[in-house]
Request: fold
Amino acid sequence: QVQLVESGGGLVQPGEALTLSCAASGFTFTHYAIQWHRQAPGKERELVAGISSNGNGNNLYADSVKGRFTISRDNTKNTAFLQMSSLKPEDTAVYYCRAIMGRSSYWGQGTQVTVSA
Reply:
C-alpha cells in the first residue's frame, strides 16, 4: 500500500522555523522526485519546492520561499523534508508532499502550518 505521510506542522509565530517530514512507503522511493505543495484557504494549490530522485542537482523553489525554505531527502530512510525558516503569515497553508515519476504520482494527506502572532 502506497503511503506518503506528512508530519511536523503546527502553529508558530512569524519569524519562527518549522521542519516538515514526509515518510514514504509502498513504492520505490529512490525512483521518485519529491515535491512540496501548499494550499491556503480560498487559493489554488501551489508548488513550493522540488528535489530530484537522488537529491543531486539544483532544487526547485517558488520565488516566495527562496532563501527561507530548504528541501532535502534521506533515501536511506525513505523520507523527505522541508525546512522552513523566517515564516510569515502568508505561509499559512496545508502542506502536501508529492512523489512523482513520469505520469505516476502520489500525494500525502497534508499537514497544517499556521503562522500567526
